[in-house]
Amino acid sequence: MHAADAHERHPRRRPIDPRSIPAFVEAGGPAARKLRPFRVCDDRGMAMASTRQRFIGQRSTSHASAKRDDLGDFLRSRRAALSPARVGLAPGRRRRTPGLRRDEVAQLANMSANYYERLERGCGPQPSTAILGGLAEALRLDAAERDYLYRLAGHVAPRLPRSGEAVEADEGLRSLLAAMDALCPAFITDDLGSVLEQNELHVALFGSFAGRPGWERNMIWRWFTAPGWRAALSPAAQHEATGQAYVADLRAIIADHDRGSAAVVLVRSLREASAEFARMWDEHRVSAPACSTLDLQDGRVGRLEFDCAVAIGALSRQRLITLHAIPGTGTRERLRLLAESLTGGQSNG
Q1: What residues pair up with 237 in beta bridges, in sequence order?
Q2: Does pTM surpass 0.85?
Q3: Which long-range contacts (CB under 8 A, 24 or more apart) does 337-341 make?
Q4: Which of 11, 83, 140, 313 is the most buried (most CB within 10 A)?
């Protein structure tokens, strides 16, 4: 048999273009009985409906397929509704679509633009909870929208702590707090700076934090949103360094939290509330938890100078922060006077 004859009898098979399948099936080809629903993307990432949808003109009854379509629709709608200014982007003159572009959402969510586009087209793989957390943050979803996003993707949304939500203080740290010197201001916070417990002298010097609602119990929030409060506490020359220390510590902490967690909510809220915080946050400084000396000006007893110490709970990551009077500064004597004024003239110091 000549090679030419063999070629005519057994021509090389060519890959089937999915766009040519409908005509083949409508013509009654044998492949019509073998096809199964599937979803593919062409070279540009454009989604193509399942073959049976395109051949018969009916919507697939596949629950998973419908969820992927709904997920894509939801992502598109939230992207279109989000203004560039809200996420810190310039509006630009050549922006042809409302809201953000796909590549901008992908960058904010820390994923590739191609992967995000496939999710919007309804032909990507099932996203992980980490991916969904990034999308929820990038698209600025509220709690209800976030839960809906997770459900569409086939996951249960992790519980999102409410902003500044109260938790129980670490028992070990609470015992240390109870045993502290009466002339040592001390308090317990969670790792985000929300105050869980204070001793009496700390309340007298800094005000009541524990038990307050939302971020009002948070030291970092109070520092950047209550200029009158911090101005009464310390000299203005110290404010920049103190603010930088708060931000660098929070930057290190947030790496241990999931996207969409209370840590992310706190950072977002602070960026919106304080231009000073936003500037410092964008400098991307990171530091381990530390507590240096503190120079405090109290209107009742005068200048107070402290050394600061931090104890961290091994499992809870909560912190016991204690302020110790620097010897030779007269601070301890002034603290005794303050304590006596609080207890009606009696002090244990």
Answers
A1: none
A2: no
A3: 337/301, 338/201, 338/204, 338/205, 338/298, 338/300, 338/301, 339/182, 339/183, 339/200, 339/201, 341/300
A4: 313
